Queue: 4 jobs
Job 1
Amino acid sequence: MRDALLDVKELKVYFPVGSGLFRRHSHFVKAVDDISFQVKKGETLGIVGESGCGKSTMGRSILRLIEPTSGSVQFKGHEVTALTKSELRRLRRDIQIVFQDPYASLNPQLTIESILGEALSTHQIGNSAKERKEMVAELLQNVGLSPRHAGRYPHEFSGGQRQRIGIARAIAVNPALIIADEPVSALDVSVQAQILNLFQHLKNTYELTYIFIAHDLSVVKHVSDRIGVMYLGKMVELAGKKQLFQRPLHPYTQALMSAIPSLDPDVKKERIILKGDVPSPIAPPKGCYFHPRCQYRMEVCEHLKPPEIEVEPGHFVSCHLYDAKATVTEK
Amino acid sequence: MAVVEEKELLRVEQLCINFKTEDGGHIQAVKQLNLTIKEGETLALVGESGCGKSVTSLSLMRLIPKNAGFTEGKIMFEGKDLNHVSEREMRSIRGNSMSMIFQEPMTSLNPVHKIGKQIGEVIYLHSSLSKSEIKEKTIEMLKKVGIPRAEKIMDEYPHQLSGGMRQRVMIAMAMACTPKLLIADEPTTALDVTIQAQILELMNELKQDYHTAILLITHDLGVVAEMADRVMVMYYGQIVEQADVRTLLKSPKHPYTNGLLKSVPDMDDESDKPLVPIMGNVPNLGVIQAGCPFYARCPQAFQKCHLDNPPLFKVGEQAVRCWLYESQEVIA
């Protein structure tokens, strides 16, 4: 993919656990374990997975809010992991993040105008305070709030409105890429739909590219062009939305899809109930991480990590079931 | 298939729950609520945050502190009015014939006691079994809820278990005395979807085995479709629509129910059409307003909605609190 806006290669984020003699770390939590993907300009890449699968860590490590252990992240052709502190600040103007909890991510002591104005002045946008004030008013309007809200404090707003402010702060600096980390999971259903529509609307207005991280497959499906499914720090499947939903290949993706209750009471789903819980990432199982819960488990799965296989163009899966189709062998 | 008419287990009439406010006044969190549950039935109470669904369930168990609020109305459970039984009698009902599971199992389990002790305590309080029989029964319950190596889990503490396992322990505890009614307040909201599927399946199995009625409180319409026989939709402390699950999901009558259903991205929908959200925000209970509480957000509102709060109208087998159905018979 030559027109990739973001190119992530073999990204790893390991956290040390406990410390042995002379602070030698004997164990690591492999929160993000060898993940590669690309994001094209203008597309929305959805990342879905259950709690603890590493999806948020991955999002943050792209911005180096959490330092990657190894691997490469290229944004517009520049290596992010090699940037200096000041270059990093410039990068964070181009990549913005929207967090899950709008209650926690806004400073309660600042008015909305100062919160948004701060984002502008930090990145030297706007020449005067007056100009910034006008920009803030415009921003508020663009996210569906009123300019007269500018003088209020975060606690005066509802959850949905606060998330709108979080989004306004992200788009204030005209980013190219927005990483949205569970932006709607703290919201009520009726408000969630408003925010999802807002994301769609802003994408068109500002020509944005999104990495949309969520645990809710139906939300991810609604907003994404391509979807990556994560399990225990690994990207187990990555495909276009249609490909993924019409033909989910990885047994975990299949189980995840079948687990979502249907709104139609007449549809009785063929449900795949996974046994047990997600294993601890400190001591992941040998071989394929999913094998203890997998209904198609084979002997090879217990010993060998599955390679990433491109089963059809643009549809990647890491599973031994598709070994025969492998054109590339073990990575 | 011949339908046997089930006995009525719980009847709530004109339930009002009021909370005192700092300035000496009070706000009404639940307003004149009526509901009935038959034996073995699952009734879902659906609504968004602050609609009064959780306090309703707490009031059934008489768990709302007296100094925080006061409730009015009748709660008839197995023929007794729970608002008039002694605290002692209430204690023997709780956990025995009526029990409850909560959203966050970590905060509802005692962190300093072992799992075995916590489940055993329920059995000890409500039966006259010997120590060894209690232990046997505890292990049996843990196995029943699908906990592997039950004997070992007995000696572990809640923090050693995963979220799904903790919720299983909560369910084992709630089902230990085979209650007639299980109140489940957002039982799967804190869990991952694959774990949610496990827990929902478990609840359905237990319901079959023990013929337990379930009052399911949730905001998730998918869970409702999966579990419920009948559904009541709550908004601003009131029931706004009531129907059997099929009717409600297939032909919702109240604009709010309709809006909720349209707000959820549909997994089976291939088109990328934008969602139709409900405008505005969930209203604050403290603000007293005339007219229908949904008026400000309703796409179909007209003059009358602004002036009077509608009663429940009977529309076919449904009950709908909306002036659009004014020509129909009034229920309450």
Note: Chain A has a mean pLDDT of 90.
Job 2
Amino acid sequence: MPAGSTVLDTILLFRDALYGALVIGVTCAVLGVYVVLRRIVFVGAALAQLSSAGIALSLFLGGYGLTASLGEYPTAVSLVVTLLGAVFFGLGGGRRLISSEASIGVTYAVAAAVGILLVAKASHGEVHDIFLQGNILGITRADTLLLLGVSVPVLLLHRVFYKEFLFVSFDRETARTLGYRVDLWNLVLYFSLGVVIASAMRFAGVLLVFNFLVLPAVTGLLLSRSMGGTIAWAVASAVLAVVIGFSLSVPFDLPSAPAMIAVSGAIAFSAWVVRRIRE
Amino acid sequence: MKVLISFDHATLGYGRKVVLRDLSFEINEGDFLGLVGPNGSGKTTVLRALLGTHPPLSGTVVRAPGLRFGYVPQRDQVDYDYPLTAVDVVLMGRYDRIGLGRRPAPEDRARAMQALEQVGIPELAGQHLKNLSGGQRQRTLIARALVGEPNVLVLDEPTSGMDLVSTTQILGLIRDLHERSGLTVLMVSHALNEVANYVERIALVINEGFRIGPTAEIMTESVLSGIYGIPVEVDAFNGHRMVIARRQHRA
């Protein structure tokens, strides 16, 4: 284990990565509260997987010179694919023909397989694996600014229309009777989720994005009895997971994303213990 | 009497599937109407057409201009795991009045408290939804419907899954709301025996048939035997009407 000053130097060296991870963690934590409350956790996973397949598609096409310019911007292709998925799930996920759970499962499995196949056949596929698994430490200042450019408007949208998103999530039928365009609000919610997932995927990977969409929200719901408190605890736990996970991964030479996920798990477990003691 | 909602030869259904044909009836100001029928008979379809959330396949459903509904959904339609208190839920009934992107003002909170007082649970305002009993949750949802100052209170299966005491209390509360303020009430239920002793008019939706009239007119053996398709008996006990299916003899 390196000395304290060396650890600090290393963390400072990767401070842009730390800032980027914080932006991803905080944004996913806020949206994750709706994901967990609406019981659409696996929609989050399926969208993350779709986003990853979008990156793979961009690399595949770019590698064969089919879309040279798009190959340079895998996030753009990923965004389009993820938003198509978000619209699909936002409009009910084809539930008239098969159950929502089944369509989520199909999307997840097919997107994962297609992503792997496309990367396997892309030129320098093994190099591009990093896009699918994420590369937190590779986040630059420009990437952080890009993440902020996506996250700030999304968080503002959720701040301004908090009560509208809450109402259509909590009781869509009553919201409809009061004149709310429930399908449109749902679509906006899923759309914002898709944008955040697509922008975060390239850096954080499927597992870390999924983690930030679920575990901080679970922690918040275990610790608070109000929506505001739940969101605050979710954000705090995401920040803690990023900072602690990042700081531990450096001296112990661990991969950063799994370290953050492990810390998220430990925080959620602690919250569960606190809740048990409180009740 | 002012007509609030008017069904004129309305055929209701989804896509190509017709659920009920050619409905023509009116709901007037001050009505206390029970929409009764078994599960799957089309009550919810009538309800959605009435609320304007599902248009008729043909014919018209006309609502008086400026009509406001106070809707109380079935209790299992609401997720009680949300970290919300009773007053948080009641406030939702004013969200459309508050306006897009705006926060509830102190006046909205005061009105929410008044609505909780109206349904008899002001002391539970700060209680988490999860900790409320079935009856208390139903009162909270009724308070949410009232806080929007509706012209028509619409309740979907308000006593479903409740014990005898809670059922009696909730039905008594709904009748009081109607009698005290003359509020127009539409109550949807599958339990004819419960509803018949409270409402003034009944609309029966059974076997794709629809019959509406004053309770005394509907609650007769000839009408009910005709619409149910089996012989029934209507008994009175301490002023309470009760419908019982006659025992079928073996052939």
Note: The CA atoms of residues 30 and 231 of chain A lie 6 Å apart.
Job 3
Amino acid sequence: MEATIDFIKRIIDNLNGIGFPFLVFFIGILEVTFGLYKNKWPKNERWVDISCFILPKLVIQPLVAYYSLHFLPLIFSEAKNVFSWVPFFWGFAIIAVADDLTQYWYHRLHHQIPWLWRFHRTHHSASYMGMAMASRQNIIYTIFFSQIYLTAALVYLGLGIPAIAVRIIKSTITTLAHSSIPWDKPFYKYRALRPIAWVLERLISTPATHHAHHAATTDDGVGYYKGNFGNMFFLWDVIFGTAHISRQYPAAYGISHYEGDQWTAQLLWPIFKSKVEGSELAPNGPEVRIEDDYEALARREANRERKKSVTPPLTAAPVLSNN
Amino acid sequence: MKIEKATKDQITRNVILSLFIYILPIAAMFITFLITGQRPWEKKTHQIENIKTITSKNSQNNGSND
């Protein structure tokens, strides 16, 4: 019996170590293969996504390691493994609620408290959904990601295995909710699956509900960036009245008035500021820029078209002869 | 830019409700223990005592394996 438990623990440990990066990489490959980015990944956005994926890890990993190995033993020297008696099921339930509800609040407050918005804006400036933008965050938002420290504390107190199990399930749900692969679509399409869809879309984040949160417009029946804050559980949005369920996907994503702030400003604001005039990340930019989404979106699309027409198409290059 | 009053009130109400939700699984666990008569924390104390006993025997060897 002990050998079996050890074996399961080892599987969970390995999944925690290699599972998440593999999942992101695998879904990313699928997205690119199916052409889901549709030329929506310009150079500046690529820099934002890649730098946000790599650089914060260089800061966060040592910080969490210091917190877990030095700070917690110093503050709670007698409390190591004090809750190791808690049965797995209950440990899982306690951590799932504590971790995800804390993240719900962290996320919601960055949308509802104006001075916090600029720390979360980077995650919303992408005009596409997918693995490329899933880790896109300002470094301050990542450093203060509250539930990292909560989970580390719970591991120290003896709830390591349930904490890792929650992390695996949560990573899978949130990654799939950001993906441009609409895995939930069949649940809405086939009548027999609709009761399952009803439960799923209220319990966990799905591409439809989370894509609505990343929409460029709101209150139009599909997009709803004023709500749908849940990460693993969507239930928090249902309970607190911040949910919007439409079973549809927005036509446009991102921030309607976004004009491509430099990757340095998006990753490191307020240390680096944006050179885009009127941007929320510019030196004298507003805390929250309020504009009519439809007008701003039309301008964004027009700018994009103009840029396309200026760039010579690939077919204009001389065709090399086979002879 | 100031936060709207309606939003502020909703946040306050929801935070209070959240505190109950945080406690809910912990309360449910102890209610289950109460109903079933389980006392898993006692089992842990016994295990620690057993380990201590073994350790004290070993410590007589002054850390040597001989």
Note: Residues 150 and 219 of chain A are 34 Å apart (CA to CA).
Job 4
Amino acid sequence: MDFKKRAISSIVRRKGKSVILFLVVFILGNVIAGAVAIQQSTTNVEVETKKKMRPVATVEMDYEAYEKEMSAAAAVEDQAINEPKVKDYEKISKLPYVKRYNLFISSGVGTNKLKAVTDPNGGMSYGGSSKYMFSLKGYNNKDILDVSEGLIKLTEGDGFTDNDIKKGSDAVIISQEVAEKNNLSVGDNFVLDAVVEVMMEAEDTEASEEEALQMQPKSATFDQPMRVAGIFNVVQKKADTQQTEQQRSDKEWRALEQMNTIYTTEGAAKAIQKKSDEKMGTSTDEGSAGEESIYYETTYVLKSAEDMDAFREDADALLPEYYHVVASTDQYEQVAGGLTKLNTIAKYIVVVAVAATLLILSLVVLLFLRDRKHELGIYLSFGESRGKVIAQIVLELLLISSVALLFSLITGNFLGGAISRSLIQSDWISNAAQPDQYFYMNNLMQSDLSFSDIQQAYKVTFSFGYILTYLLVGLGTVLISATLPLLYILRLNPKKIMM
Amino acid sequence: MMTLLEAKNIDYYYQDGDQRRFILKKVSVGFEKGKLYSILGKSGSGKTTFLSLISALDKPKEGQILFNGQDIASIGYEKFRRNDISIVFQSYNLIPYLTAVENVLVPMAITENELPKEKKQVAYNLLNYIGITEDKANRMVNQLSGGEQQRVAIARALSMNGDIILADEPTGNLDEELEEEIVAIFKELAHKHQKCVILVTHSSEVAQQADEVLQLRKGVLSHYE
């Protein structure tokens, strides 16, 4: 009748106490299991969704941090912001997580003669003094990520040559639609009739707000000769029948913007910028394009979406103050804000339930041990080591708890699944998505992710991670809750009990 | 015959400020194998303290307890209890969720003494020897009478095969007839099985059936006259 047999006899023959202990662990176990299931499932859906998203990142100004700093130091004059230098972007491109990288000049150019694709519904209006508006991207590398990442497909021509890039030639890649509208083919030369809005003179700025609104902006034009080096098609994703009206509209707008994108060399983009600056009167240097007016954009394609956090941490450290990494996966947090909230709540529930289990279980076991004081005294008076007396109690606790935990592993999973599914359907969670906080992302970073996609992807399953996490948390809690009763056993004095 | 268990100049006291309140004072006594001893004393005489010291449940403030000439402190109190000494308590102190035979098996699993392989059979034999049938041996202890429970407690004390059996008021809860039977068992254990049996009692009738009667009075142990 060693301690193991005694433990089993105690469990089997002291049924009432075993059942009470079982119920305590089972009920609290359900709370822990449910919360762990929700927490695991929300984490899984995040990981899986992010894996499906293109792992792309860019660098942008952190307006939020800047504004926060400015409002905190209201009395202080606006602080000068150091923009990242090209070498900063290049340093980031050398981080081990980066698969491919593009640094390009990004600007917009208005035209009157070169026709852009317009919204057939007439919904798009650019305003300003030009009839059409194009996005202009000037590359210093012939490998354009928009092509290699499948956003656009080069259907005619070879695109840029090394020579084009080196010399900063006037080669452009335009969309099929723009080419058709302007009767252009590969090898054709054409003129980009850039329309520039001229800045108001100083005295004009003193006009009243009302007067300013009524004023027509002054404009100037200049011609930039161009040569078609390639024609692309926008790669359209399969239409999603579950898309909302807003999603469909966003998608159409992005496709239209993509069609009206002109890809050119960095040299050509700089030349356009220089002429533009001259016309606008903002050029500061007679000999070169105003570098300060050139807006560089970067795109980093990572090897894996799982590297995003590490990349962000390392890249942020290389950037000047108020600049930060914006990732394609950030859209997840934006769209799935409710799920993130649910994940946080589940984490809190786990912590609270573990704390409650520790307290309740410790007290229940301690209460039962006080009831068994004589029995423990008998073992000690027979010369049984305290280690084996403790082992008997821990074994009893573990056996009962293991069964209760296994049952609650199943029931808690169902419970967590049912609760989280109804919460996800509720407005409280689904309205937690933040469409108003939508921020600009280039087309390569955009995805059609919606909360309904996430709702559909959300599944509470018996994953290995769930089982392992729950059993580790559950058994760990039970073992820790045995500490207080064990201290009680260590302090037992057989003489005081028996005599 | 060689002394099996010996108390040498034992002092036991409680410190009360600067004062020492003595429970036992310079107690010296030896116990031999094959003899039944009784220690007689009124309540508060120190007999329970003396029992707790010789059963290694407590440590003397001064003096030594020797087993076969070796200080039990050097043997180890726990080890001494595990292998050399068994206690029979007045309130039996059986484990309530075990059967009679399982109670007897408990010390057999704890002791390091060499025991026959068929422990369960030995337990049945011991119970049978002191008058518990196999049918009763398989019952939960709370289904047995007081006398039967005390017999189970005695069988349990015998099961680890130590040399010394201590009994604290073993007949305190029993009627006269049962009292005689239990004392007879202790006598037989001492005389026939060469155990050293020490009974602590307040009953002079029980005490006087022993081979040697000792008396504790105000912490001083002497031969009963």
Note: The interface with chain A takes residues 48, 51-52, 55, 57-58, 78-83, 86-87, 89, 93, 95-98, 102, 105-111, 140, 160, 168 of chain B (CB under 8 Å).
